[in-house]
Amino acid sequence: MDVFSNFTSNRIQFMQSTGVIILAAGISERMGSDKLCLKLPSGETFLSYLLSAYQRFGCTPCIVVVNQKTQPHALQIIKSGSVPATVVVNPNPEAGRFLSLQMGLQALKNPTGVFLQNIDNPFVNEELLQHLIANSNAGDFVVPVYGIKGGHPVLLNPKVVNSILLHPDPHTPLNGFLKNFQKAILSTSDRRILTNINTPDDYREYLAEQQADSSL
User: Are 207 and 215 in contact (CB under 8 A)?
Assistant: First the structure.
């Protein structure tokens, strides 16, 4: 096997054993409605879009962390979209993202890497995921960056995954925790990695941008 074939084989193996955790356990106070049920101009919900994108890329398994209120909505979206996914309920979403991430990771089985995706960032594509995986050895976790700002998804390697699982304090701020590890930066010209929809105004602005882009 030549060098290129071996590299390609390793990347395919990495892809096939890379999971994704979609964090959707927030109570969405500012939005006033469940973000996972918000819809794109195509009619897809944020959750169905993200799950379909990761499934097409070959990510398994897909884990969705929700709160008790949004669990039925998540299960219905998964059922209607016929996209295999595991729903994990965080009974204490006020604790923050770290607990949700710990619970999501507990549902995975020995992944070589884990994509971390926030539900309020309804953007991902195959090219971005490929580039993140291609840079997986550059650090303990890889962050896509537009300009000087980091976005999502973030790719975590097993060292970070195991450290999160073993960490005793579920209230730990995730961004602060990741400062203990080597970060690799993936520069991108796609500003959609910075999308962050927290309020009705954010959502209206997002839809307007999407419709404008589709008309070009």
Answer: no
pLDDT in tens, 66-107: 999 999 999 999 988 777 899 999 999 888 899 999 999 999
Residue 1 lies in a domain: no
Question: Model-level pTM?
Answer: 0.89
Residue 156, classified by CB atoms within 10 Å of its CB into exposed (0-12), middle (13-18) or buried (19+), is buried
Give the residue among 110, 113, 66, 112 at the shortest CA–CA distance from 85: 66
The whole domain housing 189 covers 15-214
Contact 31, 197 (CB under 8 A): yes
**Under 8 Å between Cβ of 18 and 52:** no
Rounded-to-integer distance, Cα 108 and Cα 122, Å: 22
DSSP β-bridge partners for residue 19: 114
Number of domains in the chain: 1
